[in-house]
Specification:
By secondary structure, the chain is an alpha+beta fold. The chain is about 45% helix and about 15% strand. Helix 8 links the parallel strand 6 and strand 7.
């Protein structure tokens, strides 16, 4: 394979990384043997992306994919995070050098990895699965993995995290954000290649009809007075409680670098789960919203919503046994499920890559 072909394959693997609402906040510039990775803030300016931290998590997943694919394709990588202190959107400089390809078990999981919102079976992790997931996080010393398997603890997180759905349907801005990012048809998904592909939401036909009705704010606001938002939250509690485990990624600080490292660990654990035949779904929306409240930026939220979000953060920190200097960056459920009904598209490489060589 020509060098250009390997570079294309390498970046394709990297861009298969997950990102909030599939926003894909990256731009890559090729300069000789270097790849320059940039954050594109306009790709996600939602309330979920407080100080671009969600995007930095996505960039971490991108870099983890890149490192895995590089080893499989015959490259070594030297990654320098935030090389320009004057430009926080310059996320990383990656120096590539050709070397001998190595057998990388997670490489085949890269393109198979997806978010699975289907119902999970009430099956516990096997000892082999537990050991593999735990071991996958040990290579990253910047953060740690909390693997939560007690049923009452999983239920506690499912209950706390359901604040996301309740607030999303009761907050006009978040309601608009969510519905404006849904791709309702295959044609919309193919054209936009970002956002929520409706098939990945795993909605039943009556739920699709209900969602299309509720996408008008006036109707949603009326339905909320009848308990709609609380019912959606209750449905999510039931769904998210059915998991073999909930995993939390705990970081030691809140610098951009910390969130990048959280993304790397999240992706490595996710790929390991995929390799084991397990399903994964991030359940982190409310945790990202809670950062506004903790940082004194709660003006966008009602008093009731701010109270819910404080409880979300307290629950995550308690379940992950976070000490005062630690923060929970990501939470996701892991379990056994049928394959997802759909997969989100990715932007064409021509839309995210430029070459200056």
């Amino acid at each position: 394979m020509a060098l250009e072909g390997k570079i294309k394959e390498l970046i394709t693997a990297a861009t298969s990384a997950p990102s909030g609402e599939n926003c894909q906040p990256w731009q890559v510039s090729i300069e000789g043997s270097d790849l320059l990775l940039f954050n594109v803030p306009d790709r996600d300016d939602s309330l979920y992306n407080f100080r671009q931290r969600g995007s930095f998590v996505a960039h971490g997943a991108f870099l983890e994919n890149l490192a895995i694919a590089a080893r499989a394709l015959g490259f070594s990588t030297a990654i320098q995070l935030f090389p320009d202190v004057e430009n926080e959107n310059f996320v990383a400089k990656i120096r590539l050098e050709t070397t001998t390809p190595v057998d990388e078990p997670l490489y085949t999981a890269l393109l198979a990895r997806s978010t699975n919102r289907k119902p999970y079976r009430n099956e516990a992790l096997t000892e082999e699965e537990r050991s593999a997931l735990t071991a996958s996080a040990r290579s990253n010393h910047s953060c740690r993995l909390a693997l939560i398997e007690k049923k009452e603890d999983i239920d506690a997180w499912a209950s706390a995290a359901s604040a996301n759905e309740r607030i999303m349907f009761e907050h006009r801005g978040l309601h608009h954000f969510f519905f404006s990012h849904i791709n309702w048809t295959d044609a919309e998904e193919e054209e936009r290649r970002r956002g929520f592909y409706v098939k990945t939401l795993e909605l039943k036909p009556p739920q699709v009809i209900g969602m299309k009705i509720a996408r008008r704010w006036g109707i949603a606001s009326f339905l909320n007075r009848l308990g709609f938002s609380r019912q959606v939250a209750a449905d999510n509690i039931k769904s998210n409680s059915a998991a073999a485990a909930v995993a939390g990624v705990v970081i030691k600080g809140e610098r951009p670098e910390d969130f990048v490292e959280a993304g790397r660990m999240t992706e490595r654990v996710w790929l390991t789960a995929t390799h084991l035949g397990l399903s994964v779904q991030p359940i982190t929306g409310a945790l990202f919203l809670a950062q506004h409240v903790r940082e004194g930026d709660a003006a966008d939220f009602s008093t009731a919503h701010a109270t819910l979000l404080r409880e979300v953060e307290r629950t995550a920190e308690s379940l992950c046994t976070a000490v005062s200097s630690e923060h929970v960056a990501m939470m996701f459920r892991i379990g056994h499920a049928d394959p997802p009904s759909g997969r989100s598209s990715r932007l064409h490489l021509t839309d995210v890559v430029s070459s200056n060589s």
